[in-house]
Amino acid sequence: MAANKRKKKKKGQLSLVFKDERVPKLIGVLLLFFAVYLFIAFTSYLFTWQIDQDKVMRFSWELLLQSNMEMANWLGRLGAIVSNGFFYWGLGLSSYIIVFLLVLIGVGLFQKTPISQYWPLVRYSLVAMIILSVFLEFIAPNAAFPFGGAFGESVNDWLFKFVGVAGEIILFLFISVVMIIWFFNPRFEKMPLDMLFNDPKGFWMELTSETTVRRRPAVRSVEREQARLRPGQRPRLKPTAKQQQEADPDQAVEDALGLDELPEEEAAEETKEEKSQLSFDVLNKKKEPLKPGDTELEVETPGAANPLSNMPDTPLGAGEPLQAQEENRNHSEPYDPTLELSSYEYPVLQLLEEYDGDTVEIDREELEGNKDQIIETLLNYKIEITKIRATIGPTITLYEIIPAPGVRISKIKNLEDDIALSLAALGIRIIAPIPGRGTIGIEVPNKKKQVVSMREVLASDKFRRAKMDLPIALGKTINNEVFVADLAKMPHLLVAGATGQGKSVGINAIIMSLLYKKHPSQVKLVLIDPKKVELFPYSKLDHHFLSYLPNQEEPITTETNKVIHTLNSLCIEMDNRYDLLKKGSARNLREYNEKFVQRRLNPLKGHRFMPFIVLVIDEFADLIMTAGKEIELPIGRLAQLARAVGIHLIIATQRPSVNIITGIIKANFPARIAYKVTSKVDSRTILDGGGADQLIGRGDMLLSVGGEMIRLQGAFVDTPEVERVIDFIAEQRGYPEPFFLPEFHGEEELPGAGGLKYSDLDEVFEDAARLIVSNQHGSTSMIQRRLKLGYNRAGRIMDQLEAMGIVGPSEGSKAREVLVYDELELQKYLDDLKNK
User: Fold this and answer.
1) Contact, 317 vs 516, CB < 8 A?
2) Which tens digit of pLDDT belongs to each residue from 487-498?
């Protein structure tokens, strides 16, 4: 037992040593030292090998101890021995790749880059070192200098005897072609063969300019876009606002969400070539009706670039000062809210996983088959169309059709089930018509779906260049474009959907967006998790990003009574912020913070820099079922008033019923996300319309805002990725104490008790309360009739029900509003009343 304890203690001490961030830095310094040493020794060997080779050819340990032996190598005897070992007995000139690998790993350890990020490059370098050693010995077999080393010489001799000189030439040509195809994937199908003989230079220029890297496509820059222009072709210009509105009907939605617009000189990166659109040019000159198989489908590789391959080394949120700081850069000493944590490092993208399938795969047969099936199904019902085109997204392909003149749209919309049957696909959704386009859309799920990784979304230019207050990256649109919205302009978000359809992943994606983009001084998170497991990993960020009550043991609020206190505390914080805005003559939080940064507000008078506060509630239905109006009332007040002072709400629930998502909540949550639900009723509850019941799940969502709906494939972030990001932030120095909310002292009595005791209530009070709650109808006449009481006594009981907060105030001849939803909540209320 004692031996086992000693072993466990040693293992624990060893793990602590490796968790120390200084250890990888020291190892990185050692590797860089070896790299410099080998580089000097190798370079010296190129000039001194003839002088030193005879002395070190027969190595012995005595050679290192003979102090009277001199070497010409710049690093003495050890340098001559090491370089001769690598060059003569090893891999020859390709040994320089070892220096490169040592530098790569050493720098990676300095930057805390996970080994998985540079491991593919290490593998390719090792393979290249072996191939280069053999190739160098092949082209210089009898040279005195060991170009390929002993390894290259032995392998080359074996190949010469096995396949001969001609066989080796063919082998090296084959390896070269394989490497070109693997790394560059040239599009030979676009090059006519006669161009190779008539214009070889133009052939190769066209080939390299049209190359698409399938595995890791690079971001197309403005210079590359200009290089793609043919002689006489003018570059694309940014369309006017009117042209954008006519061409893109979703622009109004993007403006409502605060989507970022790129500068004019960078607009070329957001052209149609980056949208995964395919056009079926099935409209002939006479616009004759289509038949299946009439036209040949022309497929082009989508130009959606993978932003990961051209990412800068700087973190996403670094180097982005507040707007007021930028405006006052010529002023003296503007206030810097990030100064207290000036050493804070933003999370790096290497903490997130890079999944396969970063580009949309096109199945020509699938597209052709779906097109023919759609046309044939419509023709069976005597519906003719003149044009059809497809837009390929990560999981959905949108087929836009233009019906022939005289065809009623309602006929096509009624064929939703018939088209789904003919395509043998689930999740078919018909948009008739698509707003602003004059077409009818048919959304068909792809057989091969793409995983939209969180890393890819955060690495996109749209997110990196976003100058929003609270940018959140939700995923990709059906055009395969990254969708980024501003939570501050929503201003609140309602998320609903059935179990297992992606709500928790979506909440994590929203929080990850804020962690990657914002400094701890700029945003605080108030997390409420009744399930106690979904948001618990974020508790490590209590001294960085979290905000909670001063007397709260855990930073993540889970108990219902604590939730009530937290919501009321947020209401107090909201009122305090409004008082500060009034004193500072500011209409919203942005204006107030800008004045404070410009030092136009005096901290001695109570003014302070106020961060945004984002309240996240997971599983809102459980809170409503247990606490009812005590939860709904502060939520409604925050939703109505908190926007101007920088408090924004994100509420998620898997039960989108009218008892949970009430009229007050729906009226103040204009932005809603719906994942797949089981019925059309639930879809109408969330979105005020259908569609959510036809989604395919696994992150497929509908975003509704401003009366428009956008279909998105949510970004996927796994739990290990979230934990790595949280650990990266938690290991850094945080604030001395968390950002505490104002203290809230709950009343001893239940709300509205009015000082009444249980002994003061009528003896049939409980029966009347159950009657009112079970019928959800607050009427004095019903109490009088059902319980066979006199009118005066029934009126007194109704007054007691109002005083106890079970029914609302009188509204004349109308029935009173019932404030308790079900008998379970009523029983809990009555039990608490008896105990008090």
Assistant:
1) yes
2) 999 999 999 998
Q: What is the DSSP letter of 540?
A: G
β-pair partners for 472: 485
Backbone conformation region of residue 658, classed left if phi is above 0, alpha if psi is from -120 to 50, else beta = alpha
Measure the CA–CA gap between 83 and 71, rounded to whole angstroms: 12
Q: Which two tokens stand for residue 666?
A: 């729906």
Answer yes or no: is pLDDT of 16 > 80: no
Q: For 249-263+270-305+361-449, which CATH class?
A: alpha beta
DSSP label at 94?
G
Q: What backbone phi and psi angles, to 5 degrees, belong to 318?
A: -75, 150
Domain spans in the chain, listed from the N-terminal domain onward: 15-184, 249-263+270-305+361-449, 468-735, 758-835
- The two tokens of residue 601 are 């507000």
| Contacts with 254 (C-beta within 8 Å, 6 or more apart), sequence order | none
3-state secondary structure of 104: helix
Arch. (CATH architecture) of 468-735: 3-Layer(aba) Sandwich (3.40)
3-state secondary structure at position 284: coil
Residue 40 · residue 83 · CB < 8 Å: no
Match 């945080």 to its residue by tokens.
734
Fold agreement (249-263+270-305+361-449, 758-835):
no
Cα 621 from Cα 623, distance rounded (Å): 5
Which residue type occupies 681? V
Task: Give which of 559, 621, 632 is closest to 820, Cα–Cα.
Answer: 632
**815, 616 in Cβ contact below 8 A?**
no
pLDDT for 778-824, tens place per residue? 888 888 888 888 777 888 888 888 888 888 887 766 788 888 878 88
Burial class (CB in 10 A: 0-12, 13-18, 19+), 267: middle
What is 758-835's CATH number? 1.10.10.10
Polymer length of the chain: 836
800, β-bridge pairs:
none
Specify which residues 712 forms β-bridges with.
477, 701
Tell the residue number behind the tokens 């012995």, with chain if given: 60
